[in-house]
Amino acid sequence: MRIQSPGWHDSLGALQWFVYLLVYSIPIPIVIGGLYHLPATEVEGLMQRTFLVAGASTVLQGVFGHRRPIIDGPAGIWLSVFVILGDMALRSGGDPANTLSLLTGGMMLAGIALLLISRVAHRFAGWFTPLVTGSFMLLLSIQLGGVFLKGMLGAGHGPLTSTNALPGLIAIGVFLFVFGLSVWGKGWWKSYAVLIGIAVGWLVFFCLGLRPMSVANLIWFRLPEVFVWGAPHLDLGMAIAVFPLILMVLSSTMAATESMDQVLEKQVEEDPKHVFRSTAVSGVTHLLSASFSTVGIVPLGGSAGYVRMTGHRRIAPFLIGGLIMACLSFMPAVIGVLTMLPAPVAYAVELAAFVPMVGLGVRAIMREPMTERRLTILGVTLLVGTSLLFLPADTFASAPAIVQYIAGNGLLVGVLIVLILERIWEEPDSKGKKSSLKSSMKC
Question: pTM for this structure?
Answer without folding.
Answer: 0.74
